[in-house]
Amino acid sequence: MKILKHFSLGNIRVNIHFLSPLSVFALIFAESSIYSFVVLFCALIHEMGHIAAIYFLKAGISEISLLPFGAEIKMKNTVGYLYDFIIAISGPFSNIILGGIFWSIYLLCPHPVPLFGLISSLFLAAINLVPVKSFDGGRCVRSLAFSLMEYEKALRFIKITELLSLIVLTFLSFLAVRYSYFNISLCAICIYLFVCVYSAQ
């Protein structure tokens, strides 16, 4: 992973990918509206969900890497499959809760911003639940597979699940780019998804 800068936050090392600040600035200036900040807020809540679960389970954090879209968190202590599942699912679950809050706000005050927040938050939860290695869904599937199946069967199940997910995600990414009418932020997300997906093979 290419690092632009790293610093310490207490006992936690924080790495910044060289594309991370560029993706944030590109999102803000390309959309040039409050909707950009809504997307960033949804992403922040997602990562805070993971961090809250890690601290609740006392796994500890040794390193946080800020990536072009999202973050990678390394834990100090090795956790079992159940705890790893809880930590992985906590990010998407936080987005689902946030989506419920946005929906409640929209019911009280019908405005495009909370509706967009609802859609963005649920989309972020859904895309992270795709069961491939680089996403939270992949960690969930691996944790469940290794805890419920024999090792060799679990590996086969994971490979089949990832292969099917790669096919579906690739198809949906092409459709998103095709029908986004060159929306810059969406195209950038799709390109990043391609990188994540094919590096997971």
Helix/sheet category: alpha+beta
Largest sheet: 4 strands, mixed
Q: Topology as H/E string?
A: EEHHEEHHHHH
- Tell me the total number of β-strands: 4
Q: What is the CA-CA span between the terminal residues?
A: 17 Å
Q: What's the number of helices?
A: 7
Describe this structure in words.
- A hairpin with a 2-residue loop joins strand 3 and strand 4 (70-75).
- It is built from seven helices and four strands.
- It has a four-stranded mixed β-sheet with strand order 1-2-3-4, with helices on one face.
- It is an alpha+beta fold.
- It is globular.
- 29% of the residues are buried.
Summarize the helices and strands and which ones pair or pack.
Elements: E1 3-9, E2 12-17, H1 20-31, H2 34-56, E3 61-67, E4 70-75, H3 81-108, H4 112-128, H5 136-148, H6 151-179, H7 184-199
Parallel strand pairs: 2-3
Antiparallel strand pairs: 1-2, 3-4
